[in-house]
Automatic annotation (TrEMBL):
Gene3D superfamilies: Cysteine Rich Protein (2.10.110.10). It comes from Ambrosia artemisiifolia. Residues 30-41 have a biased composition (Polar residues). Residues 22-41 are annotated as: Disordered. SUPFAM superfamilies: Glucocorticoid receptor-like (DNA-binding domain). PROSITE patterns: LIM_DOMAIN_1, LIM_DOMAIN_2. The keyword Metal-binding applies. Residues 51-111 form the LIM zinc-binding domain. This is LIM zinc-binding domain-containing protein. Keywords: LIM domain, Metal-binding, Zinc. One of its GO terms (molecular function) is metal ion binding. The lineage of its organism: Eukaryota, Viridiplantae, Streptophyta, Embryophyta, Tracheophyta. CDD domains: LIM_DA1. InterPro entries: DA1-like, DA1-like_dom, Znf_LIM.
Length: 391
């Protein structure tokens, strides 16, 4: 086929290029430090006829040119889409030629320096869900990630800065819930979802959106709390406390920075087994909703008098209900067609995060709970949990 012919041609060109460029190891720079490992400058064949550059589409009438992926290039026209710099490392050119990759390497998040591995190849990683390409050291150098969708901040885009140090990408910011009052319509929607599962909550439970510090303080003060994830985003509270709640949604300031929030104290009084549900502010509607569904399931179990359950059983059924809510939201977004393409993708991401969680409590607990619900139904699973304490 044409593809096989082109691949073989690329491989042949790669071997020829490798042979012409790597006959001897690069000499040391006689005027520099022997430990500097300076590479030999790259050499290119001279053009002897009219050729069209695949990068700029101009004729290469004279001077040096480069063969790569079955085409010819000006040396300065073979560029990385991420940093816009020419790819001048001859081993990297051999790599993209022999592997017959796309026209140029694309990295969505680029550092100032190009990193190479021990063999001299340019390294990059790919986000398992979003397919965002980035240099590996961004996992360690403090490059901001969106606290919602987990994508790195691209080179030429500035994420919104929240007051507690988190960053939010502009797509997630578009549906972010910033204040307690703004979350009430979502709270009512999830109450209706619970009622549709024959799990109506009779008691009115206060819902408060809080900053990270207030959530951590409330978690530390909770003596009868459930198991917590490394990054806590929600809490079902059963102790009397004073909580600093976010009372309103601000306008976005200059440079995508969210201005100071209005924080007001809220006195919690214990009237039953549940005093409040706390959710981290500044997250998009779908993530806020899945957290709220999870915490409302904790509240339902307490108010219905369920015995103390193993962490993996309680967290597992709460994650299962959150997963069910996300599934219902995806179905709703699908019915609306292409109106909300990013929101549907975001819902798929949050759902996939629950499904692929590797932790023994949340991940294994969800998989066991989800299997039970799919096989026996939610009500039968809850009845078995009450009777035996397990799925």
């Amino acid at each position: 086929s044409d593809d096989d012919f082109l691949r073989k041609e690329d491989e042949r060109l790669a071997k020829a290029l490798q042979g012409s460029l790597k006959l001897e190891p690069p000499p040391w720079n006689r005027n520099g430090n022997r430990n500097a490992n300076v590479r030999q400058p790259m050499s290119f064949p001279q053009s002897t006829g009219l050729r069209t550059c695949a990068g700029c589409n101009n004729v290469i009438s004279h001077g040096q040119f480069l063969r790569c992926m079955g085409a010819v290039w000006h040396p300065e026209c073979l560029k990385c889409h991420g940093c816009k710099l020419p790819i001048s490392d001859y081993e990297e050119i051999i790599r993209i030629t022999s592997l017959a990759l796309e026209k140029t390497i694309t990295r969505d998040v680029m550092s100032a320096a190009t990193l190479t591995d021990a063999a001299g190849f340019v390294e990059y990683k790919v986000h398992p869900f979003w397919a965002q390409k980035y240099c590996p050291h961004h996992e360690r150098d403090g490059t901001p990630r969106c606290c919602s969708c987990d994508r790195f901040e691209p080179k030429e885009v500035q994420y919104a800065a929240l007051n507690d140090g988190r960053k939010l990408c502009l797509e997630c910011l578009d549906s972010a819930i910033m204040g307690t009052a703004d979350c009430q319509p979502l709270y009512l929607d999830i109450q209706k979802f619970f009622a549709s599962l024959n799990m109506k909550l009779e008691q009115k439970i206060p819902l408060l959106l809080v900053e990270r510090q207030a959530l951590n303080e409330a978690m530390d003060g909770e003596t009868n709390g459930h198991h917590h994830m490394p990054e806590t985003r929600g809490l079902c509270l059963s102790e009397e406390q004073i909580v600093s709640t976010v009372s309103r949604q601000p306008r976005i300031g200059m440079g995508n920075r969210v201005p100071s929030m209005r924080i007001e104290p809220y006195q919690l009084t214990r009237q039953a087994e549940v005093t409040a549900i706390l959710v981290l502010y500044g997250l998009p509607r779908l993530l806020t909703g899945s957290i709220l569904a999870h915490e409302m399931m904790h509240a339902w179990l307490r108010l219905k008098g369920y015995p103390t359950l193993r962490p993996d059983v309680e967290e597992g059924i709460c994650q299962t209900v959150a997963h069910m809510w996300l599934t219902s939201e995806i179905a709703s977004l699908s019915r609306q067609g292409r109106r909300f393409p990013f929101e549907k993708k975001l819902a798929d991401f949050f759902k996939q995060q629950i499904e692929s969680d590797t932790s023994p409590v949340y991940g294994n607990g969800f998989r066991a709970g989800n299997r039970a619900v799919l096989k026996y139904g939610l009500q039968q699973t809850l009845y078995h949990m009450r009777s035996t304490g397990r799925f």
